[in-house]
């Protein structure tokens, strides 16, 4: 089936409003999605006419009561207790934690806990990224085969075999562990600092998206189970685990980010155990 660009733009606007806690102006929506302001204005006008979004006196938008399904209601609302679970996980592992919702085409951060570790720029509530490998591997690993194949097709051809093997191991263990070149950790810090000085505005939108794209390219490589079971210290960027809905469909990805060049085997086992525990708790909600 051929995708419909106009429909995708409508879906993108609704997903962004559902993912961010802040009310957004039409200009902010256009900037975040890389769309023209006239296109976004037309989409929002149509959604407002059907009461799918509400426009405030300050010309900002939020989801409205006319939107069918669980997305209706205050933008960015999360079930009670999820933020507490993320903060508790961050305390247990001593690093930043994030939760994202994963669709067929996008990954959007909906909750972040950074009190106990650094969080790269761009990993903030409302940030929406196109879904391409290796992002959201822990969710894709439990998806149907056609979706896994589509995801693999977005990867560099030289990495597809490695990522396909990683999906198999993730299904067996429930956790993905991503390594990173120690030199890239320094690059990540520089890009994070640059992104942190770029305000959310139309003038800096294109540059900010380029910086976030470079950050996404530093996502690293999957550690194999055999590597993780050795006594050698390994560089680790982040770990991820799927969170399922009541129908046991993977909808969200939970991430923790040690961002460390050398992690011992006991520490790796601690990280894996704790993220699995929290992912199971979140799925139970």
Measured as a percent range, the helix fraction is 40-55%
Estimated radius of gyration: 19 Å
Distance between the termini: 34 Å
Low-confidence parts: 70-77
Structural class: alpha+beta
- CATH homologous superfamily descriptor of the largest domain: GAF domain
- How many domains in all? 2
Overall geometry:
globular
Following the backbone from N to C, one meets helices and strands in this order, namely: HEHHEEHEEEHHHEHHEHEEEEH
Beta content comes to: 15-25%
CATH architecture of the largest domain: 2-Layer Sandwich
Look up the CATH topology of the largest domain.
Beta-Lactamase
Largest β sheet strand count, sense and barrel closure? 7 strands, antiparallel
Strand order of the largest sheet: 6-5-4-11-10-7-8
Name the CATH class of the largest domain: Alpha Beta
How would you sum up this structure, described in words?
The protein is of the alpha+beta class. It has two domains: 5-63, Arc Repressor Mutant, subunit A, CATH 1.10.10.10; 82-284, Beta-Lactamase, CATH 3.30.450. Helices cover 44% and strands 19% of the residues. The protein contains eleven helices and twelve strands. Strands 6-5-4-11-10-7-8 form a seven-stranded antiparallel β-sheet. A three-stranded antiparallel β-sheet has the order 1-3-2. A two-stranded antiparallel ribbon has the order 9-12. Helix 2 crosses helix 3.
């Amino acid at each position: 089936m051929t995708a419909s660009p106009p429909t995708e733009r409508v879906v993108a606007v609704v997903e962004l409003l559902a993912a961010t806690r802040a009310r957004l102006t039409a200009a902010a929506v256009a900037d975040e999605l890389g769309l023209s302001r006239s296109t976004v204005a037309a989409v929002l006008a149509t959604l407002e006419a059907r009461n799918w979004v509400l426009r405030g006196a300050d010309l900002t938008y939020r989801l409205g009561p006319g939107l069918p399904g669980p997305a209706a209601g205050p933008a960015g609302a999360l079930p009670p207790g999820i933020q507490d679970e993320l903060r508790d996980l961050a305390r247990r592992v001593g690093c930043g934690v994030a939760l994202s919702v994963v669709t067929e085409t996008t990954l959007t951060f909906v909750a972040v806990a950074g009190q106990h570790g650094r969080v790269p720029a761009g990993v903030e509530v409302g940030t929406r990224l196109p879904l391409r490998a290796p992002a959201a591997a822990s969710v894709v690993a439990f998806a149907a085969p056609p979706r896994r194949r589509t995801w693999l097709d977005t990867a560099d051809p030289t990495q597809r075999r490695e990522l396909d093997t990683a999906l198999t191991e993730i299904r067996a263990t429930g956790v993905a562990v991503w390594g990173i070149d120690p030199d890239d950790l320094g690059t990540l810090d520089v890009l994070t600092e640059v992104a942190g000085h770029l305000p959310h505005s139309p003038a800096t939108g294109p540059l900010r998206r380029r910086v976030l794209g470079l950050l996404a390219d530093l996502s690293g490589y999957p550690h194999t189970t055999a590597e993780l079971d050795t006594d050698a210290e390994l560089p680790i960027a982040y770990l991820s685990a799927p969170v399922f809905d009541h129908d046991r469909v993977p909808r969200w990805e939970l991430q923790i980010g040690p961002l460390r060049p050398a992690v011992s085997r006991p520490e790796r086992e601690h990280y894996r155990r704790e993220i699995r525990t929290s992912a199971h708790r979140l799925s139970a909600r």
